[in-house]
Amino acid sequence: QRPFERTKGINGLEKIIVRDDHGRSFEVYMYGGQVASWKNEKGEELLVMSSKAIFNPPTPIRGGIPILFPQYANTGPLPSHGFVRQRFWEIDTNPPQLPSNSYYKAWVDLILRSSQDDLKIWPHKFEYRLRVHLGPEGDLVLTSRVKNTDVKPFNFTMALHPYFSVSDISEIQVDGLQNLDYLDQLKKRTRFTDHDKSITFKSQFDRIYLSTPNDIRIVDKKKQKTIVVHKEGQVDAVVWNPWEKKVEDLGTEDYRRFVTVESAAVEKPIIVNPGQEWKGILQMSVVPSS
Ligand SMILES: O=P(O)(O)OC[C@H]1O[C@H](O)[C@H](O)[C@@H](O)[C@@H]1O
């Protein structure tokens, strides 16, 4: 394994920096296990951090890739989006092997175990293992493994919430979600079917697409790039842009620079039996397009 660098980030919060041999890199904060940066070989940042992000626990960090677990949004009794984005994760020094272990060149393994306090709000013992790695082409991959270390089954909803950098929100389109059902979060999660050829953005947008294909594309004509979002083990996808809606810790013009396309499990909670493990993959790559 390439050694990773453990250093102090904003406000003294600890972060890990991982680089590969081609000059690509990513950064993960121990707080939230949250990826805060992903750069290609030219040093270009591919994710967005809010210009007003607050690096002060227990406030969640606005930007990068928050992990929303064990509850997506306010779909249950927990605080919105669960609590792991507000916990301090640890380095996983002895992670169980993944099938494709030899393929990893630049990676880090983190772990979060439920604490006594967590058990008071969500009474299920778990271990959440997160591997973040750079693939051979500079793609960023998050492998999540959630183990039930308790004596009874539990279920959860979740999402990985990347703030993808785009040239301009009004210039991009999202492809791969045509003819699917979605829950419109701006209409009390009413169910509709999307008959548009592709998604474009003209105002606030907040939808949970249900049982989607594995690949979704964010086409950015201005940048001549396409971001491919590939997901496994999480059947839904959330697409969000707040537009003019006031978000406390987001700069007023920040919404123009990002879109979130989230790998999610919302409609059908994931059930994990005692001693068993759920695995999900989110792979993000940027490819040229005309
Ligand atoms: O403000 P947060 O709790 O970080 O949530 C940010 C956003 O997350 C998701 O994308 C939801 O679909 C949105 O409804 C929500 O506004």
Automatic annotation (TrEMBL):
Q: Which UniProt keywords apply?
A: Isomerase, Signal
Q: What class of enzyme is it?
A: isomerase
Q: Does the keyword Amino-acid biosynthesis apply?
A: no
Q: Which reaction does it catalyse?
A: alpha-D-glucose 6-phosphate = beta-D-glucose 6-phosphate
Identify the catalytic residues.
H161, E262
GO CC term (a single one): cytoplasm
Q: Which CDD domains match?
A: D-hex-6-P-epi_like
Look up the EC number in the record and give it.
Answer: 5.1.3.15
One biological process term from GO is: carbohydrate metabolic process
One function term, GO molecular function aspect: glucose-6-phosphate 1-epimerase activity
Question: What's this protein's family per the entry?
Answer: Belongs to the glucose-6-phosphate 1-epimerase family.
Q: What is this protein called?
A: glucose-6-phosphate 1-epimerase
Q: Which organism is it from?
A: Raphanus sativus
